[in-house]
Sequence to fold (207 residues):
Amino acid sequence: MRMLRWIAYGLVAVVLVAWGLIWVQQGGLGRLDTASVGMSVPGGVSVGGPFSLVDSAGKPVTDASFRGRFMLVYFGYTFCPDVCPTELQMVANALALLGKDADRVAPIFITVDPERDTPEVIGGYTKLFDPRLIGLTGTPAQIAAAAKAYRVYYARATSKDSATYLMDHSSFIYLMGPDGKLSALFKQGTTAQELADGIRAKLAGAS
Ligand code: NI
Fold:
């Protein structure tokens, strides 16, 4: 009987190992390997996808407009009192650290507050951080679709004064490859140096 028990344990171990190998092969955490500080996304979860928005000049823009370059995507809103300006300044600093390599990256800020962030407002805002930063807005439906593709949570925080409401929103920075697929994910609090290093590692892998 003891023999049978060990055989049973052995079979369970084999199944677990095989399961693990299949999981890794199917994407798992391996494919999105994470440069130095990038985060992983659980296997099977797709992040990013097509979007159809409007730039600061009021012209239509889609994800395909940036194909062939990396996209560094961040969702937020211009009235954000703290997190968004901090993160956008960090992105601007990372672009400076990247030097010439920054030409291969389109840094994109997508509003989650299209009602106040008109093309003009978002264009004026992104310029404050870096003239290369591309501000995108759209109809509420267009923004909702883009946020859904990137799995961004956002919601209007309750406020009595409707003109000064705040938005809750998730705060990740997405590095999308030249093929439009997720290359790396950076969490809030990443330093400019860490972001620049993470981007550079992905640029090196793609050239
Ligand atoms: Ni914010």
Summary: DSSP finds five helices and nine strands in the chain. The pocket of nickel (II) ion is lined by residues 76-77, 80, 83-84, 169 (CB under 6 Å). Strands lie at 52-55, 60-62, 70-76, 105-111, 134-137, 154-156, 167-169, 172-176, 182-187. The helical segments are 2-25, 83-98, 119-129, 140-149, 192-206.
